[in-house]
Each structure stands twice: as structure tokens, then as C-alpha cells.
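Many introductory courses stop at the sequence. We go one step further.
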Amino acid sequence: MTEPWEKVVPYQQVPEGIGSLSAEHCGSCHQDHYAEWKLSTHANAWTDLKFQSELKKESSPSFCINCHIPLENQQEHIVLGMFDGDIYQPATIKNQRWDRKLQNEGITCAACHVRENAITGPTGTKKAPHKTIKDTKHLSESLCLNCHNATAVITPTLACSFETGDEWSAGPFKDEKNCIDCHMEQLERPFYLVMKQGRAAFIPFLVLEFQSILL
């Protein structure tokens, strides 16, 4: 298991200053962000009925879930490896720290913004009630392409393939614009509830809907 989508994001502790990794908890301050996220495809990445239907098929390998619930906190079982390298026969143990509510949030805020007991953000502000680290490299297109450039499996009943990164790299905008420039437009609004107006990203993620290709 060497590709990004074949691995789960290691278990994340709740950073000091916040009470939960839940998007709902983030939304108590980041109200606009939370409202946008709730309407997004990311928020429904796990609960989407079509995805759940595909997941139940014998032709769906276990690591499909790593893009839909990226955090170890969200996964009911921990994959230790594959028997004889077979992607359909994972060796697993029960995850004693599994959070069912967080699982249902799919690609939740913490999936991208919580690492090493801190909130990763574009500014690294010291005004937040929680530890914040400026990390634009982590929040760059490389994070998006961990999942949106995955050719995971092609079987007689399922094709799961995203070549978005390859298409972007081969296109005319590679050195000018990235995923975030188009899919998270900048606008003037508060970062959080009591902050004055400032530059922040809009979080729609509604341009493309997840689709499995049934053969």
C-alpha cells in the first residue's frame, strides 16, 4: 500500500482549545464555512446512497473508504495489511477509538485541517482559541490530489478512477492556477463569528458530483 488513497490519515487527537473534531463543533464559530460544507459533496461522501451501494459489492476493495472517510478516527476497523497482497482480503482489527458520528460527516473539516494536535490553516493566526499552524503546502493542490488523482480499481462491475491531477498537470494552467483557485474562490467575509471582514475561501465543492461508472 504505497499510494495516498491506500492509506488512512493516522489517528488525530482533539487539539487543545476545542472540544471535538466534529464539523458541527467547528461550525459554532466558523458558521459560514459550516453552512457551505453541509451542502457539499464532501459532507455526503460517506452517507451517499450510491457510494454505499457500491461499497457493498464484492468488487469494491477495502481502501475505497480512505477517500470518503480519511481519518483513522472515522474508520470502524484498522487495516493492518492484505492477505497474500489481495486487496479484497484485508487483515483488520477493531478500531477501539472509532467515532461513528465523525464517520457520518465524511470528508469533514478535521480531515484536511487537523494534524499533529493543531489546526492547519492558511494564516496561522494567533487570535484563535486553539493552536493554529500556517501550512499552505499541506493545504495546496497536493492534498486534493491524494484522492482526486486515483486509479484504484477496474473490475467487471466497477471503475473507480480519477485523473484530475494528470489532466491539470498536462493542461495550460499548471503553473498559473491550481484546484483551489477555481474551486475555492476568495471572498470578503469573516473567518469566524466575531471577526471583522477579511479574505476567506468559499467552500462549495459542488462543481463535480462523485460518480462510479457501472460497466
